[in-house]
Design brief:
Elements: H1 2-30, H2 34-60, H3 64-82, H4 84-102
Helix pairs in contact: 1-2, 1-3, 2-3
Length: about 100
């Protein structure tokens, strides 16, 4: 039972992260921010790998609750990614890192 709850929590977190980052990646691509796009794409690949593997395995085992959670949390992650203030926070983070390197 404990591992099942951990699986659900992991799917929730990974799906939110995946869909949020995928939306942010598109915004970075539109602004032609290649380095930032590549960094975000790396994390997208990791989140996709884990969330899809766990959800697909659970679905094959007949656990449809994980599939519902996968879809709902994916939509929530997409919603978070579409918020413009999140994009500004990410841009400030990367600009801060660039300034720090120049010093």
């Amino acid at each position: 039972m404990f591992t099942y709850i951990l699986t659900i929590i992991f799917v929730i977190i990974s799906q939110i992260v995946f869909n949020y980052l995928r939306t942010i990646e598109i915004k970075f691509m539109i602004k032609d921010m290649i380095k930032e796009t590549m960094i975000v794409a790396f994390f997208i690949s990791i989140a996709l790998l884990f969330s899809t593997f766990i959800s697909f395995k659970a679905l094959l085992d007949g656990d449809y609750l994980i599939a519902v959670i996968y879809i709902i949390t994916g939509l929530f992650g997409k919603y978070l990614g579409l918020k413009e203030y999140k994009m500004e926070e990410m841009s400030r983070f990367f600009k801060f890192k660039k300034k720090k390197k120049k010093d």
